[in-house]
Amino acid sequence: MATFDNLQVFQSMSRSPHARLHAIAELGDGLAVAHWSNAHDARDYLAPSHHTLSCYLAGGTGTFRREQPGNCGAPDRLCILPAEHQSAWIINGEIQLAHLYIEQEQFALGAVALLDREPRSLQLQEATFLEDAEQAGRFRQLCRLDWQEPGERLLASSLAHELLDHALLNQVGLRQGLRLKGGLAPAVRRRVRDYIEQHLAEPLSLDILASLCSLSEYHFARMFQSSFGLPPHRYVLARRMALACHLLRHTRQSLAQVAMTCGFASASHFSNRFRQALGDTPSRYRQAFEPT
Questions:
Q1: Can you list the alpha helix ranges (DSSP code H) found in 144-216?
Q2: pTM of the predicted model, to two decimals?
Q3: What local confidence, expressed as pLDDT, does residue 292 receive?
């Protein structure tokens, strides 16, 4: 995850003398969350490099976009602020809200895994004061957790992934007028994706993946990045982590077995990678999802 210094929406709120930050956490996997309150303010967001999902938790009936003064917010209303969008907001009265910040790489992973599309062909669709009770419920559940407590932070990470997956399935459309150049043909992209999924337990070197496409390693790496939205090694690691999380939550395999199934050299190597990605150990992750 980029540091909060590089999250433009977060920084815009931080610069306000009226906004108050109640809680903040990096959740791993390119996701971060913040709980804010604000009052009698004006905020502008100018082409952020990340996506933001926002939910009003209280108030907001005097909040509107500068160009839409007749359309005001309310509790449980959602705003979807894609990367590169621009918006200007007026806050009359008081408001409490939660922000989920999403790096574009994490959006790319979801686009490939859930939608079987090239991320560059898709656009997270901007929305203002959307009504979606399911998403609002997730945000409220997220904000009831203590993000500084390791187990609850891991539960928060799981909820953040659910929020992103729901947005991908319901708030994404094709980019208009886009002419894609380079990249892998759809059938080849699916072949590579499926091969990776079926061989996560095995070494997946660049030359093996490139041979599936009859390309040099250099050209394959460039075309993979265009089609998948991130480099091959990062994509493979992300898929291994996704499988590991599934196995930790839904099986009783030992950590050594999970490590082997997911293609890690050892349980210690797996634990180190897991901590780097999610901020905690595989054992703590499993405990967080055990029935109480």
A1: 150-170, 186-198, 206-211
A2: 0.95
A3: 64
